[in-house]
Amino acid sequence: MFSKVKKTYKEFPDTFWVISFASFIDNIGGFMLMPFVSIYMTRTFGIGMIEAGIVFLIIGIGLLLGSLIGGALTDKFGRKNMALFGLLVSGLFSLIMIFINDIITLYFVVGIMGLVGSLGDPARGAMVADVLPPEQRAEGYGILRVVVNISATIGPALGGFLATQSFMWIFIGDAITSVLAAIIFFFKIPETKPTKKVESSDTPVKPETVGQSMGGYKDVFRDWKFMFFIGVSMIMSLVYMNMNFTLPVFLDNDLTLSPQIYGWLISMNAFMVVILQFYVTRKVKKFPALIMIALGNLLYGIGFVMYGFISTISFVFIAMIIITIGEMIIAPFAQAIAANFAPEDKRGRYMAIYGWSHLFPMMFGNIAFGAIMDKFDSIWVWYICGALSLIAVGGYLLLNKIAKDRFTEETKTDIDAIIETEILSEIGAEKVSLEYSAKAEMSE
Fold it and tell me: In this structure, are residues 141 and 338 in contact, taking their beta carbons and an 8 Å threshold?
């Protein structure tokens, strides 16, 4: 095992491993915080799920604007400074959250937090693609997912313990990890932005103005197959996000389970991914990518619908196991497809728009599902999740027909690269929702 790990380590540049280590540190704090935010708000401010959903809507608006601006600034000014800024600001706002004692102030602070804290998100996503050649990129993302999932096995369990003491400590923990990651970025990671050159020449191209960089988004929006992929992925995220928004409150209020139980549930999810992702990927890689993503969404539907029928802890964990299997099927394909869309000179902007597949569900889905929990029986959340999963299944199957030439061959090459990575044969993994998208929802 150690010889395989050593061999893989030598195959990748040092900068990649430093980025991975910094992500490990930062995501421990993120996973300490994010699973418990909705419980924190409902308990601390005495608000319902609709008001909690409004908080996430405001965060999402800030994230949307921040990621768009950050994507353009990343391509204009480079990756390192933008990544540093995002880490330090998100850590600062985690500390500020401790002192908020009314909902109006919370609305204002989280809006600013989402805007400035997300400016560095596209930069961090672009860095990995910058430092790795195309043939290593997918396996690099696979290794990075290993790192994120190791964080996810530690963070929720630690956050659940701290939340039983005081929610203050999870905000302090997130701030500390953000600052530590920023220190690593500052001292150990160089600027990775590629220098664009004139075709058939070594002369650098004249840099874009900020206005031209922002205007480059029109090329992303014209890529209609990419935008179709984003749209269907939004439906998928609308279902998956309930694991971090409605599920903890449902378990707390309806099943009267403690936050610590929920922390163990999420840690189990991450642990399964770390242990089993390679095996699952190895089994499904021979099949069309979008067909497999459709299958994963079907499992999402089954797992989330189960929460509408169960009442015991054992079935709570069984439902999560089914959801996690779906996640492991989806993960390597979705990441490879998204990465292959972006031209080198627009990578930051494509990464920013890819973030929409998580942002819009967070912005509007949380309010919608929160209203259902407040006004109707909470079990309807899980029935609706089942219906949305079926819609996503149909969307991916349709995409498989109309865009097979765009996805299949490129993605198969990347999945094969993941499988050939020796380190994944030992520990496997997945989870970004860099994604986690909800990471962007307050976690850095």
Answer: no
The answer to whether 136 touches 417, Cβ cutoff 8 Å, is: yes
**Per-residue model confidence (pLDDT) at position 206:** 58
Query: To the nearest 10°, the Cα dihedral for 75, 80, 85, 88?
Result: 150
Cα distances (Å, whole numbers) of residue 136 to 77, 108, 133, 139, 141: 25, 42, 5, 6, 9
Q: Measure Cα distances from 396 to 333, 339, 360, 400, 437 in Å.
A: 12, 17, 19, 6, 20
Give the DSSP letter string of 81-131: HHHHHHHHHHHHHHHHHTT--SHHHHHHHHHHHHHHHGGGHHHHHHHHHHH
Output 78-81 pairs: Cβ under 8 A, ≥24 positions apart. 78/123, 78/191, 78/192, 78/193, 79/123, 79/124, 79/126, 79/127, 79/130, 79/191, 79/192, 79/193, 79/348, 80/123, 80/185, 80/189, 80/190, 80/191, 80/192
* pLDDT value for 1: 53
- Nearest 5°: the CA angle 241, 247, 252 is 150
The single-letter code of the amino acid at 309 is F
Helix (H, G, I), strand (E, B) or coil at 197: strand
Q: What is the pLDDT of residue 434?
A: 31
- pLDDT means per 10 residues, the chain with 444 residues, are 68 88 90 80 84 84 82 81 87 89 87 83 79 75 77 84 86 92 90 65 56 67 83 92 87 84 85 81 79 94 93 91 92 69 67 77 83 88 95 92 64 54 36 34 36
CA 29 from centroid of its chain's CA atoms: 14
3-state secondary structure of 290: helix
- CATH class of the 13-190+211-441 domain in this structure: mainly alpha
Q: Using CB atoms within 10 A of its CB, is residue 268 exposed (0-12), middle (13-18) or buried (19+)?
A: middle
Q: Output the CA–CA distances (angstroms, integers) from residue 160 to 24, 123, 265, 269, in the order listed.
A: 19, 30, 10, 15
H or E element that contains 73 = helix 49-77
- Domain positions in the chain are 13-190+211-441
**Cα–Cα distance, 33 to 174 (Å, whole number):** 7
Contact partners, residue 91, CB within 8 Å, separation at least 6: 174, 175, 176, 177, 178, 179, 182, 444
What is the rounded CA–CA span in Å between residue 181 and residue 21? 8
Written as six digits, the tokens of 135 are 């043939």
The residue written with tokens 């989280």 in the block is: 110
3-state SS class at 204:
strand
| CA gap 262, 11 in Å, rounded | 38
